[in-house]
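pasting for the record
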Amino acid sequence: MSLVLEYAQHLTRDRRRSAHTVRAYAATAERLVAFLQGHWGGEVTREALAAISAADLRAFLAQRRGDGIGNASAARELSAVRGFLGFVGEDGAELPRLRGPRVKRGVPRPIAPHEAVALAELAAEEASEPWIAARDWAVLLLLYGAGLRIGEAVGLRGAVLPLGATLRVTGKRDKTRVVPLLPQVRAAIEAYAAASPYALPGDAPLFRGAKGGPLPPGAIRKSVRSARAVLGLSERTTPHALRHSFATHLLGRGADLRALQELLGHASLSSTQVYTAVDAAHLLDVYRNAHPRA
């Protein structure tokens, strides 16, 4: 078995990383091994990787820069490389020291409440069949009304039916959390379940694709891309932007940061604190637009 495949299995089985993370990290490991085969002119073994130098890593990153990646992508690439080298190396072995590029931490870009609703409405209106319209409306309301990630929404099983006042969600690293369901969100999901042409048993996906299989996240992303173009919204208006909107709107109404952390399923409070910057930016905009001396 190749080292890259072993690493992917380790991430899935032992670290409980998401399928998206496993694909991304394994792809980086594959790129590194392929580069080193040419760079060293020989087979890339576990022993050879244990002796990798900072100069080797700099050469790899220089090649990736030549491929056109920016600072953020280079930083992610280096992080994935460190994870791979830490896996193949011996316990306690020191990795080569290499400082990654500086990346300015981005601030989430939420959209206004009326834009979120308009986006969901238009995505539903453009659906090819009424039950698909009900499905897209329900999924997008879940993202905005309950703060779910797109993967969490499409990962729900039929066992959540019948719905109550709360919903148990399985997030990253198989962590579960309980989120409240607004009446409008609950009604949207129930309307979809009633309209679905497919049975929704407890052990099967709740949201289905057009042919009855699990709903792929790409189908929702595609409908959002189409709707945002019609509405003239930014390209950064993605399904995940609805989750950002959920967080910033709650924070703007006085939600406690710790409570928001629980609702979003963040492992660290620092991940939630980025929304305080968004809220502060909104307050400044209100001030500039309203204050006579601004």
